[in-house]
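Deliverable D5.2: sample structural annotation.
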Amino acid sequence: MRKPALILAAFTAVVVLASVVEGEQAPRGYVESVSTFVCPAQYRDMNGAIHFSDSTAKSAIIDGKNRSMKKGASRVVALGKKARVVAGNTATPIIVASKSATWLGLSQCSPSAGEFWFVGGTSDVTSLGYFQFINENLGKAIIDVELWSEDGSESTRTLTIPGRSMKSFPLTTFMPGKKVTAFHIVSRSGLIRAALFDERRKGLTNYGGDFVAPAVTPAQKFVIPGIPGAKIGKKSKVTSQKLRLFVPGESDAIIQVTYISPSGIFAPIGLDSLRIPAQKVVEVDLKSLPKSQLFSIGVSASEPVVGAILTRGRFGNRSEIAWSTSTNVSTGEQIALPEKSGWLSIVTDAPKVSFTVLGVRGKKSTVTIKVDSMAIWKVPESARAIQFSTRAAKMSLAFAMLNSSGLATTSLAPALAKELTALPVVDSGLFVPTAPSS
């Protein structure tokens, strides 16, 4: 009967010892991780490049193989026929794409997700647009593409995207003949990156093209920053500017549009109380707005809504379209910039904002600008990236470019969220004695 008593004594000793060292346990360690960015591939006769903040960014093509990410020889990587995955511990990469004598397009690389809203594109006879779905993971992804047009709800498409692969679909395959479209992409399994491009042509006449950034999830308030105005270029002429809206719920929405620019804020006549029918994609003409270089729009609604603005016109010597999309407010952004001049739009309630500019050969400088609801900063060609402090005020950001290739705009998404994962604790102070032999 001596053995059970010894075992009980040993167990008691372990419990007592563990309680003694509990207060002296080694501090828990954590490892910081962040999602990866996914950059779409070129399509047909598109040309372009991905711009990183510097050459230390690691990336790999997505081609069905489990490739390790490596540093490149340059901060600029040409768009290829394969999509690319980029390490998340770098500034958000930006893509500048073009088609000779046709259009200029801008897009950010962004993380994979399980849900996207897109308000933009067309699938009528002028459409050359497409969706690109990218699965960076090894397992297959199954997604539902919910469709709406000016006629209401269209049939839902279910698609399977194999692991480490990419699939492209012309917009005309989803709902042929529809003029104004909206899309809701929901994953049944797996995470994907979705990219929408809108290009239009009728006969031999090109109307231009641009990426359509994902919109914020349906909300009663949102901001669309950095919309090109009539004064964005000396030879520019805006021929049409329309706010496209979609109410996904069952009740109509009453919306109010607010015009925001560096010169002030006001509610335009005729846009202060609009009824938007539910379950139909609607466009509202913005022809009554003042002429400006760049401006922003605030939308308040009685029901959750999603929206974007399509600008059409002649910029330089060509017809062009540009999409401006709603974006979530953010802070602490680190954004890569192309080696081209442009304009950064900042919408915030703060009286001024400051940010760090990373230039050629790593040179850093600080820029501080006053803000009266909205500010515009002329981005020099020497800028490689900008960094906002994590203590900065919340803001909505957009970037616009105008050159001989055309006009392009893109909203700038919030920075990737960092996650902390606890490491296992190894405490050599915890000693478990063995029971003596009988």
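Annotation notes: The CA atoms of residues 261 and 295 lie 5 Å apart. Residues 1-25, 425-438 have pLDDT under 50 and may be disordered.
The annotation will be released with the project's public dataset once the embargo ends.
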